[in-house]
Amino acid sequence: MLKEREQMEFVSGNILNRDILNGDVLNRDSLKGDNLNRNVLNRDSLNGDILYEDKEIIVCRKMAGIAVQTARIGEADMESALKNYLRTSYIGIVHRLDQLVEGILVFGKTKDAAAALSRQSRERMMNKEYYAAVAAAKPVPVKEKCTLVDYLKKDGKGNISRVTCPDEKDAKRAELSYEVIGTAAGQEQDMEISIALVRVCLKTGRHHQIRVQMANAGMPILGDNKYGSRESKAYSSENHVKNIALCAYGLEFAHPRTGKKMNFQIVPSGEGFRCFAS
Fold first, then answer.
1. Residues 6+ apart with CB under 8 A from 262
2. How confident is the prediction along the chain (278 residues), in pLDDT tens digits per residue?
3. What does pTM read for this prediction?
4. Quick one: 93 exposed, middle or buried, by C-beta within 10 A (0-12, 13-18, 19+)?
5. N or C: which terminus of the chain carries fewer CB neighbours within 10 A?
6. Sign of the C-alpha dihedral, residues 80, 85, 88, 94?
7. In the Cβ-directed half-sphere of 151, how many Cα atoms lie within 13 Å?
8. In whole angstroms, what is the distance from residue 6 CA to residue 247 CA?
9. CA-CA distance, 186 to 22, in Å (whole number)?
10. How far apart are CA 123 and CA 137, in angstroms?
């Protein structure tokens, strides 16, 4: 169940409202139309994804397929779009999401605000919560809770991470907890699989951590061609899941100037979450 928190900032757009907060039910309207295929950013389209803005910060929704920052000429990214939207030469990147992942991001509009927010993120004072739609080879009980602790090693050349031994050079401890909040039946190539909606809370922040750890636990995320299993890839292809079914749906932090607790939530809009929509 999604818990309503004190001092939650409710804004227009796809932010969760009080009616949705009484259960983990996704809004089907958010899974229709242009929400699924928006890979071009301009001033007008970005305006619909602004969740909150003041003189110091701007909070927005990054759609799957959009990079946070890129050096590729002609490719849309959040940094360039926000600079254009705000008509400014500076926007402070505080934290990132993989290009194929959707979710909430906060940016600093001033260097002081960006530094304060980056400190919160670095010191694990910024709370981030995720939804993931996963494919399990065996049924998983609803409300199952589990903590995963692994050691991950990043391969920069291949842009991948893998689970390894604790004593391997450059191995870093990775921890997350998850709760199964819904299941849906799935079948692919005569093999029964269980599609589950899980809520994930990160304890550490490692490269591709959720994707790697969930796959290693036998629950690869739908749409993940890099870490997915044969069954999850086949199911994703058959059901037209083009992007990774992972959404950074919740973000909580202290305002860099006032210290006020800011809390935002959105409803996932990706194809992988369709079977859990109301």
1. 7, 9, 52, 59, 252, 253, 254, 255
2. 333 333 333 232 332 233 333 344 454 444 443 333 344 455 555 666 899 999 999 999 999 989 999 877 778 899 999 999 999 999 999 999 999 999 999 999 999 999 999 999 999 899 999 999 999 888 888 888 999 999 999 998 889 999 999 999 999 999 999 999 998 866 555 557 789 999 999 999 899 999 999 999 999 999 999 999 999 999 999 999 989 999 999 999 999 999 999 999 999 988 899 888 76
3. 0.81
4. middle
5. C
6. negative
7. 9
8. 22
9. 27
10. 36
